[in-house]
Amino acid sequence: MNTSEEVGDLAKIFNSLMNLTRRFIFRVLCVGPIPNHISFIMDGNRRFAKKHNLKELDAGHRAGFVSVTYVLQYCKEIGVPYVTLYAFGVDNFKREPEEVKCVMDLMLEKVELTIEQAISGNLKGLRVIFAGDLNSLNERLRAAAQRLMEVTEDNRGLVVVVCVAYSTSHEILHAVRESCVRKCDDGNGPAVLEVNDIEECMYTSVVPDPDLVIRTGGRDRLSNFMTWQTSRSLLHTTGALWPELGLWHLVWAILKFQRMQDYLQKKQKLD
Ligand code: IPE
Ligand code: MG
């Protein structure tokens, strides 16, 4: 056996040990309540690139996509049914056109890859839903996003909502307009809109409200992300940049959610 084969074997053993340890940690974690829906505000990609002196424009965002893969895998293993990812905000379109293009191209690359995985049966039950103003995406990305939603719509595993071209203000505006069309244009004259009418027309109405919001990048704000849906959610922020988010950050956030259970449940009953 030569040195590279030995290194390969050691890496395999190390990986198996890590997998076992992770599964053990998740078993212990699952003794307590697990959030039904976790939302992630993925912040800090560019700072990650800067910190590591990565020069390519897409380097930080590329690292961010790797993090998405791990985080989804962990959520699936823990048994979280719904995950929302804040991938691109309406305001992010105000960034330099080169950067916007770069993120859109990267997203297209990942969406097309995921379509291939879904078709070849390698997605293990994952269902992907895009939420936001999809009309503001370029045609190719919009079509790919649509296709990915179609090819995964019968999957019954983890539901992942990808928020692109999304902001709550835009979502509410869209929902109010849509509910007016549905309710006021039905030929029965003027109608009174109820909260339910608006909620039904929200982009994210396909999933329950988040129980836990995790924001990376060290900023303690919601940045126009699901502000309507998170009045009873626990907000956990971490200084870790999105590409740095690891197993322990996630475990720590869920432990905090478990510690706060009594308080969160009391709030749900009172509101
Ligand atoms: C989040 O990371 C990713 C997107 C909004 C596309 P940023 O790009 O905001 O990175 P920082 O916060 O500037 O480091
Ligand atoms: Mg940022």
UniProtKB/TrEMBL annotation:
Keyword flag Acyltransferase: no
Coiled-coil boundaries: none
InterPro entries per UniProt: UPP_synth-like, UPP_synth-like_CS, UPP_synth-like_sf
Keywords: Transferase
Gene3D superfamilies: Decaprenyl diphosphate synthase-like (3.40.1180.10)
Family affiliation: Belongs to the UPP synthase family.
Name of protein: Alkyl transferase
